[in-house]
């Protein structure tokens, strides 16, 4: 079911964009409410030849938009020679069918468009499986309509029996994919559980600059592009936030407003990094016409996947494109714990690193290790963890005091050939973060203030 990559020689499909803005739609305020759909269409490499927008009180049950708008749409479609209509609103299978009948053209909705982009951009086996699952789940209730595409308009569709057989086959396939993804997820969970470094997940709206930031922090060479959903796979790399202090940072798939629910579900394995992260860096494109709307959409998706209540820093990105500093000050007031940066020029990255180092330290405790001097390998491992704040030798025993993560010090101590030659004591437990503790401690310096120096 996964769609094949677009053939570059084939002329792009011509499409007309359609949007019904309901009263609670925040895009009603925007000057160009169809900008995002336009960007999605560009990313899917279709050619936009017209736009129709209608303000409505509520969706029409049969065609979503009203009769007058359908007539207007038909005219635009005919005049522009379009072959496809793309609806910004998600349509029920019946609404799609009715619109197709009225327009005599193919009609796809926002979810289908996003699924198409995901299918084009999926690279790893895991991403491909996830997209395939989402596509199958989407197609199941729409099977009759897809069949009718084969025979064109007026085709009466296959017999009920054929339809039932097809549905059963698809259900079996969905089942198999889910099982495969479950295994991948379990493997991922095990992998993440054995990591002992402080972990940071970069999240944010699509095209906010997450991968650019990832590259700036780690030199990872992750794919960056001015298109939506360039990244569909999570990458994790070490990031040196201070001398001798590494954290693990992960780049993740971008979010979008009204992200199809099925897609969120099938991308759970990819979002594992977000769920298990010690800290979220929420990247916001401060140069976007409405950064708050995007930040809100990200918040909604984080809630959907159950990643709320985590310590979070808001990274206001692309400040090199902002001339009006008042706008920046406004965003700093409206969003929690902001750090303005430019992932492109590197401005602000040093401060970001020092803030993250400060937070990472709060996940560390103070440990005293007494170890026989003959345990060379274990001593080397311990001393590689952090600069000891105390170090002394008495008789044949080395005494070290280290600020580090519990699991790290335990693992290093476990390298001793004889476990009886090493003693470990916790002098101070880690001040593990809660949102409340974070807020109380005001760990993030206010703008203009000098950030706390990293150790
Ligand atoms: N001017 C400017 N452009 C930036 C900055 N950061 C990223 N960009 C550009 O923004 C576009 C998107 O960047 P990406 O890093 O691919 O964004 P992303 O958030 O990873 O996007 P997806 O993976 O598609 O969700 C690219 O054209 C980048 O060059 C910045 O600080 N300043
Ligand atoms: Mg990316």
Main attributes of the structure:
disordered N terminus; 16 helices; 4 domains; binds guanosine-5'-triphosphate; 6-stranded mixed β-sheet; 20% strand; Rossmann fold; binds magnesium ion; 455 residues; elongated; alpha/beta
What does this structure look like?
The structure is a single chain. The N terminus and C terminus are likely disordered. The strands form three sheets. This protein has a six-stranded mixed sheet, with helices on both faces. The chain is of the alpha/beta class and 455 residues long. The chain has 16 helices and 14 strands. It folds into four domains: 108 residues, Rossmann fold; 57 residues, no CATH class; 166 residues, P-loop containing nucleotide triphosphate hydrolases (Rossmann fold); 65 residues, Alpha-Beta Plaits (2-Layer Sandwich), CATH 3.30.70. Strand 6 and strand 7 form a beta hairpin. The structure holds guanosine-5'-triphosphate (GTP) and magnesium ion. The site of guanosine-5'-triphosphate has 23 residues, from helix 8.
């Amino acid at each position: 079911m996964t769609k094949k990559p677009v053939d570059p020689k084939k002329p792009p499909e011509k499409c007309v964009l359609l949007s019904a803005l309901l009263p609670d739609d925040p895009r009603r305020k925007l000057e160009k409410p169809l900008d995002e759909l336009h960007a999605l269409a560009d990313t899917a490499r279709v050619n936009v030849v017209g736009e129709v927008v209608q303000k409505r009180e509520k969706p029409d049950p049969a065609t979503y938009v009203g009769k007058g708008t359908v007539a207007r749409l038909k005219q635009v479609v005919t005049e522009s020679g379009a072959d496809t209509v793309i609806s910004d609103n998600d349509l029920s299978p019946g609404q799609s069918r009715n619109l197709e009948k009225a327009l005599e053209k193919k009609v796809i909705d926002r979810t289908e468009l996003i699924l198409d982009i995901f299918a084009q951009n999926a690279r790893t086996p895991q991403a491909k499986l996830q997209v395939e699952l989402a596509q199958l789940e989407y197609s199941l209730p729409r099977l009759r309509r897809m069949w009718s595409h084969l025979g064109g308009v007026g085709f009466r569709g296959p017999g009920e029996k054929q339809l039932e057989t097809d549905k059963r086959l698809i259900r079996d396939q969905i089942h198999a994919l889910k099982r495969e993804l479950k295994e991948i997820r379990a493997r991922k969970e095990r992998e993440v559980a054995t990591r002992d470094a402080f972990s940071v997940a970069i999240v944010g709206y699509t095209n906010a600059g997450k991968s650019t930031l990832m590259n700036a922090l780690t030199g990872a060479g992750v794919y960056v592009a001015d298109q939506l959903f360039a990244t569909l796979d999570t990458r994790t790399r070490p990031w040196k936030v201070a001398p001798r202090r590494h954290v693990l940072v992960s780049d993740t798939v971008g979010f979008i407003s009204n992200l199809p629910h099925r897609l969120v579900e099938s991308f759970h394995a990819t979002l594992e990094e977000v769920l298990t992260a010690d800290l979220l860096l929420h990247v916001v494109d401060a140069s976007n016409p409405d950064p708050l709307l995007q930040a809100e959409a990200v918040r909604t998706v984080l809630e959907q996947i159950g990643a709320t209540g985590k310590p979070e820093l808001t990274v206001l990105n692309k400040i090199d494109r902002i001339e009006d500093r008042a706008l920046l000050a406004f965003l700093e007031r409206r969003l929690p714990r902001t750090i303005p940066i430019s992932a492109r020029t590197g401005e602000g990255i040093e401060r970001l690193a020092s803030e993250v180092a400060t937070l990472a330290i709060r996940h560390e405790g103070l440990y005293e290790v007494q170890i026989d001097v003959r345990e060379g390998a274990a001593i080397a491992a311990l001393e590689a963890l952090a600069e000891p704040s105390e170090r002394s030798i008495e008789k044949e025993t080395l005494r070290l005091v280290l600020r580090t993560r519990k699991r790290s010090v335990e693992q290093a101590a476990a390298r001793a050939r004889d476990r009886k030659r090493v003693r470990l004591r916790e002098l101070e437990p880690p001040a593990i973060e809660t949102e409340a503790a974070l807020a109380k401690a005001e760990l993030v310096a206010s703008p203009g203030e000098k950030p706390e120096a990293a150790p």
